[in-house]
Structure formats: C-alpha cells, structure tokens
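Entry
Fold in token form

___
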Amino acid sequence: MYNKTSATLMLQTIMVLMDKQNSTDVTRFPTNFFEDAELERCYGIYGCFSKAYPWTENRPDNYFPAPPDSLGVRYAVFTRRNRKIPLLLQADDSEKIQNANIDPRGPFYLITHGFIDGGHKIWVQNMANALLNVEGNEAATVMIVDWRKGSQPPYGQAVANIRLVGAMTAHLLHTLYKVLGLTNLDNFHFIGHSLGAHLAGYCGHTLQRQFNLKLGRITGLDPAAPYFSNTVTLVRLDRSDAKYVDIIHSNAMPLYFSGFGISEAIGDVDFYPNGGSTQPGCKSEGAQSPAGADMYNQLGHLVSCNHKRSCDLFTESITSSCPFMAVQCQSYETFLAGNCTTCDSKHYCIPMGYYSYTFYKRLLAQGLVDSNSHITLYSMTGGSSPFCKVHYKITLKVSNSTESRVHGPDVGRISVVLVDKNNSKSDHKFIDDEQKYYKPGDVETKMVPFKDTGYPPMSVIVEWKYETNLFNPMTWRLLKSPSIYIEYMKISSIEYNTDITVCPKMKKPVVANLQTVMKTKYCGFS
C-alpha cells in the first residue's frame, strides 16, 4: 500500500538517481543558499524573492533562487534564416538585443524545459523547427529559454530558480518590446514543460506587475505537480498569466504512482488526452529505453514517458493534418462511454495543441464563452507517432433473433476496421480491451479512436476474436462454432460529423477469425 512516506521515498530515490546520472553537469551552489534565516533576498533589477507564505505552502523545503550568474541562463534565438546556429542573448544585454535583427512582425515563440532537462534536447529542437515551418511564419522568431544549470537537483532549488528565471525572461521581453517598437505582446506565445510551465507563468506575472504588459498566450505542457498542487495562483501557472492559457495534462497522477504532472484544471482550456494520467505506449514493456542505456537512463526514460508525451502531442499538433479534436465532457469515463459526441453549446470541441487558441477565440467572438469561462476537454490518442486519432462512437446491437437466441451468449472480443470511399482502411481496433460476455439483445456503446484515413467510413470490416479458457465454461463451444449475431453497428464520427449504420449481409453471424464486411445496404431498415 502506498502512502506519503513511500511517496517521499520514491521522490528522493528518483532525485538521487537523477543526480548521479547528471553529476558531471550539476551546478553546486554554496551551502549558505540552503540554510539561511532570511525571508527575502533581492537580485537587483529582477526584484526580491520571499520565502514566507505562500511560498511555504505544500512544500517540504524552501529555497531562495540562486544568483543570476550561477544559473547560466541562455536565450538561443532561431529564425528561418538561422536554423542551425542560434543567436545567443542574455537578459541584461540590451545592446545585443538591439543588434539582433529580429523581425518585429513575429510571431514570437518561447520554449523552455523542466527539471533535469535543457534547451539542447531533441524535443525542444523538434518543436522549434515545427514552429518555424508553419505556413505564414516567415517572420517568426523562436527563443529557447535554456536554464539547464539551474534545473539540476535538489528539486526544491530548481523550483526556486524558476522564479528568478521567469523574472529575467520578463525583463528580456520588455527590452525586446521597446527595441522593436511593439504596441503589445499579443503575438508572444510561451511554451513550457513541467517546471518550465510555471516558469512561463512567473514571466507572465512579472510582465504585468512591473511593465503593465500581458503575454498573448502560455501553453503549459504537463505543468509540474510537486510543490505546486493545491497552492494559490501566485505560486503556480494560472489563467491570469496571459491572455490565453492552455494546458495539456499527460501525467496527472500521484507522485507515488510515478506521476509528475498537476491534475488541477488551471488554464482557460485544459486538455486531458487519454484521461491525462497515463499515456498509451508508456508502460514499461511498451516504452523501451535506447539500446545500451544504463540503469539511470532507463529509469529516467520510464518515469518521463508519460510526462514528456505532452511535448510530443503539442509538436505533432503544429504540423499534422489530423485535427487532434478534444471534446468537453464531465469526466473521461463519461467521454469513453460515448456520452459527449456532439459539438454543441453543451460540449465544446477544441483541437488540442497549437491551434486551440484559434478555436477558442471563435467561441469568444460568438459569445459562447467569456473570459471567465473554463473548459475541460478529453480525447484519445495513439501510443506512438503519429499520435493523433479520430474519434468514433460505436453502438453495437447483438441480435435478439431466433438464431441468435438458439446460438446463445458468447464470450469474445470484437475487432473493427473502418473503410472509406477510396477503400482506404483504418487500423483495426477492439471495442473492448478484454473479452466480454455478449448476450442476445445486448447494446454496447463505446468511444474508439482510429487512424484518420482522410474521409469518414462507408463500410466496416468486423472480426470476432474468440479465446477458449479451460477454467471458464462460458467460453466452451463444443458443438457450435464460436460466433456472434450482430444486428447492426452504428458508427458516429465527431470529427466528420457523420453517422452510418451497417449490418451483416443476410443477417449472417460473424464467425470467429473470419472477416465480415458490414454495409449500410445490408440493413433491412436502411
């Protein structure tokens, strides 16, 4: 049984192992940073930082930020003209910013990492390139906020450091605002992962408090939970830190279950793909570490898969033609049951990721939401790239005909493949994860994700997967072939807003391990 003690032990174990893994790069701060009776410490133009409430709330330890010089913060600027070798800026070097030749038209993107990470990682590079490749982004500037020296253990010190890095970044953006002669920061989009999400919030807060400027958008990619859950908004990222704040939760579960992401809905729009806690493909048997990785790298890969998935989803959303649609619903369980499949005033539909703000602004313009509205949305994705799937509500009716009743109930799984007008096939999906007991007259409704073929389905290929279990007499078929009599199957698409009902030809049963094509024209009531 897990408890708070085991949770703390797990966190300490992970931190120690990560500390060992990164020992050659760890910045060793002076001892007096960690044992100090001061309640406030000031760092020149960047302001003063308190250790009093609310910075003590839900935190087992509390630190001051390390001095700016020891953090080694670098701002690497990329444009379409310099994709490989960045221009390096510093927060307090206004002359270099003036000579940077940054296009004032924008848009401007900032990307930052979290604990034990850095701006040199491949996911950061992939995201930066995807943003620069967006059609119409010829004048775009991508700035990587790299604070890797300050992101090292202990975790509490890294938590404190992002307060100062956020303030430093706000000063840099203010200088940029003045040098480029901008009228606002509406065209600025700050994207932060884990601790970096809260760093973005501190930047947004400082811009408002010190310079009366407001970021256009902050995207929080699985914002960190430890030290930030159940705290006041001043301590963490919240919807007031920018004009639009969207959150992708991918690892929102307790720390003692290897969860690092915050579960609270803290943005204008919060997305919970696959429920927001664990992601498909991230189980230990499915998410393999790179060949030759040592124990520490393997551990890091295991605990980071769900947490980093938010970055992968956001990057894919930038360039994918797949819509990445998510639907407003009461809960993920309600969504899976197929109770939120229409895009209307009760269930808003917003694409997760890069294009969410465009849709949100439409809702604002139509008066469907206001600035005080909060929207929580759910979706399903795949376990590997490409992650985006399209959602179908499948309603299955087991026939109650004489033949079906004579055959009797059966235990198995139903596999479905969707076929569009071009005869392109989706991947095959099981309606249920495990074998199910189907009785004549049963009706089952489920939400199932499929690979997008580009068009809605016109027919369906169905298979009955039957597995005999020696210890379960319900699975024994001694005289009759394993099969199921399906009366009809209704396929409702969220993305394409279409409905079709298909049936087996001549009301024949779906026999185990034989493909059965079901079409609308086979339905007697079509």
About this structure: The two ends are 55 Å apart (CA to CA). DSSP finds ten helices and 24 strands in the chain. Confidence is low (pLDDT under 50) at residues 1-13, 15-35, 289-296.
